Here is the input.
Amino acid sequence: MRSASRVHNGTPGQASRASGANEGHYSAQGVQRRAVGYVRVSTDMQAAEGMSLEAQQAAIEGYCAIHGIKLVKICKDVISGGKDVRPGLGEALRTLQTSADFLIVLKFDRLSRSIKHFCELYERYFKDGTKELVAIRESIRMDSSLGRALVGILLVFAQMEREAIGERTREAIGHIKRSGYHFGKVPFGKRKIPAPDNPRMKILVEDEAEQRTIAQINTWAAEGIGISEIARKLNEQGVVPPQGKEWTKSLIYNLRLRMGQISPRPINTRSYSDREVRARILDLRARGHTARQIASILNEQGWIPRKGKQFTERGIHGLLRTIQATRVLSPRGYLEMMLTKMERAHDAEHSTVPFARPTLEEMGRLLEEVGYVTPRGHEKWWPAQVAHVLEGRLDGYYSEGRPEGTWEEEEQSV
Here is the structure.
């Protein structure tokens, strides 16, 4: 890969005037090459060591200006580099594949602090040499074994630093709590004050106003008033909720649950998983059913929610807002859902004309656009592979193990 060392050679004016400075960033046809920038910070290091988002962005813009590279866009993340799935990084990599020649970062650890993740990115996007990775501060060429080894060493220390920070943070929090002080979110009904023996630390005491609210909730509950009505009464009285703009049914429920006034609803025993319920909901939605109809169909067919007696229209509305089809459905399920939607839309507009299914190539592009990968981990879907998916020949693979970057269980239960 191209070294970033040119940015250090001479002044910016000299570099921009030198005939050879920009030469390497033009194609054989003299077309200016394009780059996408990526900047990242963790929430606790916004302005530390000149690594703020603005500082990283300025460095990338300056590098592109010096070397005559057209900067297509800069993608941003405020998230730990130890996390593989990042919205900004995903956008940068998609831009790299479709409309850029370079991915430019300030340092390698902005791209990833995980050795495994970095190696996966290198193998997938940069190994064949068609795309290039530039790290401005580290003048290391990635097209040699020595360069790759040096990057590996840098990433070892980056990963070690990330793990050490986590260990120190957990140890400090544990020590604070063991010493009798408070750390973290303040529960409703309490407030923080400086500890008498150590003003730098905090302890919890009762908040009189919030305690009166809790007492009022308990009184209403003892009178048999439901939590929805309790929430409405609190909002009418202008009582400030612990979070959000107004009291809700879930806030009241969780507050009473935390205080031990009620027991959590039992989890139903079912022969199917949450993912199967979500898949059924998506299938019914694709067929044009409303949330009320979906709830009714599920109840009639014997489906039950994870908690509670039956599905409700409100519950289905909430699930439809949160379900991500690509995290629930296998490639075959996703294609079948999309074909059902396409056929319904076609029939609504052209009821007398038979529906023509998309070609295998077009369906392959559908899978690529939403992030499904082949059984071998490739992003490119060939027509023969799409045919195998539709025939169900890959069902066993996608039910036994899920390749990285594809569908997965969602945290919210159904």
